[in-house]
Specification:
By secondary structure, the protein is mainly α. 75% of the residues lie in helices and 0% in strands. It has two helices and no strands. The longest helix is centred in the N-terminal third of the chain and has 39 residues. The radius of gyration is 30 Å and the shape is elongated.
Length: 75
């Protein structure tokens, strides 16, 4: 019976070791791919949109009142 337990524990440790090694290699591969993508395909610089102020003051006031009323109702 002890030989069977020893075989089971040995098989469990080998299996857990293989899974650990696979996951470690997966993390390394993902980090390498991430660095390659960042190096060869950099994110383009963000462009800011010009602020257009064609909205009248009465519209801004109405929106502000509506937001205030909504926030006070659904707090």
């Amino acid at each position: 019976m002890t030989e069977l337990m020893n075989s089971g524990i040995e098989l469990m440790l080998i299996g857990m070791g293989i899974v650990f090694l696979f996951l470690a290699m997966l993390v390394v591969a993902i980090n390498i791919m991430s660095s390659l993508v960042q190096r060869f395909f950099p994110e383009p610089p963000a462009t800011t949109m010009p602020v257009v102020s064609d909205v009248s003051k009465s519209t801004v006031a109405a929106i502000s009142v509506a937001v205030h009323q909504y926030r006070s109702t659904y707090k």
